[in-house]
Write a structure and sequence with these properties.
The chain is of the alpha+beta class and 129 residues long. Strands 3, 4, 5 and 7 form a 4-stranded antiparallel β-sheet that branches. A hairpin with a 2-residue loop joins strand 1 and strand 2. It is rod-shaped, with a radius of gyration of 34 Å. It starts with a helix and ends in a 7-residue tail after the last strand.
Length: 129
């Protein structure tokens, strides 16, 4: 009988020791899981960039002024769609707009202009304008 009691006490002591070791680890993991779920780190917001363009149409001519107030270079391109089916639509050559710069883009149709718009593409470092 003595051997069984000794073995039982030993098993209980070993179980308590193992539980005592795993409880802090479990609490540590639970704290990190709760902290991660409570406040997800938000994605970094991109820096503002891109030139602001103002387009005007007068008769058969289109003029766009693009000003870039941001520190990164922007590439802008004017697209003109003509009303007449035989009048050729046009896309200007892309132009780099440096920080604090303004560029003028212009185009024309033979007759009326249906629509005109400017597209943007940020310039990668190392590209030549």
């Amino acid at each position: 009988m003595r051997g069984t009691r000794h073995r039982t006490r030993t098993l209980l002591a070993a179980s308590a020791l193992v539980a005592g070791l795993f409880v802090p680890v479990g609490l540590y993991v639970a704290e990190h899981v709760r902290a991660a779920g409570a406040s997800e780190p938000s994605a970094p917001e991109p820096e503002p960039s891109g030139a602001e363009c103002r387009t005007s149409v007068k008769g058969s001519r289109v003029v766009a002024y693009c000003h870039n107030p941001y520190p990164s270079t922007d590439r802008v391109q004017l697209h003109t769609e003509c009303t007449r089916w035989w009048d050729i639509d046009a896309d200007s050559k892309p132009v780099s707009v440096g920080p604090g710069r303004t560029v003028r883009l212009d185009d024309r149709c033979w007759k009326e202009v249906r629509s005109a718009w400017v597209t943007h593409a940020g310039e990668k470092s190392g590209e030549s304008p």
